[in-house]
Amino acid sequence: MKLRVLARWTIAAPLTLLLIDFALSNTEPVELRLFPLGELPFGRPLSVAILTAMGLGFFLGGLHIWITSLRHRWAARRAEEAMRLLEAKHQELRSRTGDPVLAPPV
Fold it and tell me: Which of 24, 60, 82, 90 is 20 to 30 A from 13, comparing alpha carbons?
């Protein structure tokens, strides 16, 4: 567990320092344009514009992965429910016939 924490800090600390350096180095305001609207009525520092776009992309990518994984989670839930029903049916049939539980082969 401590190795995992150390690895996180080893990666996170330099990335954080790079992001801070990037934000401090690019403070000039830029005019933002959006195709159908034209120029937006406010200017933002370049670092804020780029980091916001990156954050939005990260969020949308995670949302896409989460939505596509829903199908697999639903299939797993259905399979677990089917397995529970089959186990219950197996127990019922075993109790009805009076068969002892077979010992696993050695």
Answer: 60
